[in-house]
Hints:
By secondary structure, the protein is of the alpha/beta class.
Amino acid sequence: xxxxxxxxxxxxxxxxxxxxxxxxxxxxxxxxxxxxxxxxxxxxxxxxxxxxxxxxxxxxxxxxxxxxxxxxxxxxxxxxxxxxxxxxxxxxxxxxxxxxxxxxxxxxxxxxxxxxxxxxxxxxxxxxxxxxxxxxxxxxxxxxxxxxxxxxxxxxxxxxxxxxxxxxxxxxxxxxxxxxxxxxxxxxxxxxxxxxxxxxxxxxxxxxxxxxxxxxxxxx
Length: 220
């Protein structure tokens, strides 16, 4: 009797965490990478990283567009940078988890009940409301839905620090040099945004040479 792996959506950004997550999870799940396109100024770089990473595994990635921020709401101008910066309490997962609520019916129809996210220990430390937010999102996805169709968030990297994630990526032969972390763009990693600083620190703490090109000089 042939064993069939459970399907799982991987929230994929082309970053270090989601790339390691994809490699790690492929052993246990039929992984379905999904990239939510928010049309930010770094979307091109993220999509380039996504394409490079999935090709190493012989996979493809589903790109789903998130509606753009409106230019005005109730007569108030909405700055475009709001789409690029995460909510202060829950980090980069706010938009992705919100999008999952929108696409939940489609995921269920495709036979998916598990959503894998690249949350690590360092994320929870940086964003203290993250765990509560994810629990609330999961509850929202399943209100009024039969238990057999419930969707759950799973974070296999939750107990690993960012440094540990880098080390695990090396063990799995993840092409970390192809990943993208920067929030700013537009050409190389800026070297000064929060995500770049965490990337620099993770490589340095792991004792791994960082081949990333940064526009600004970085101090590990």
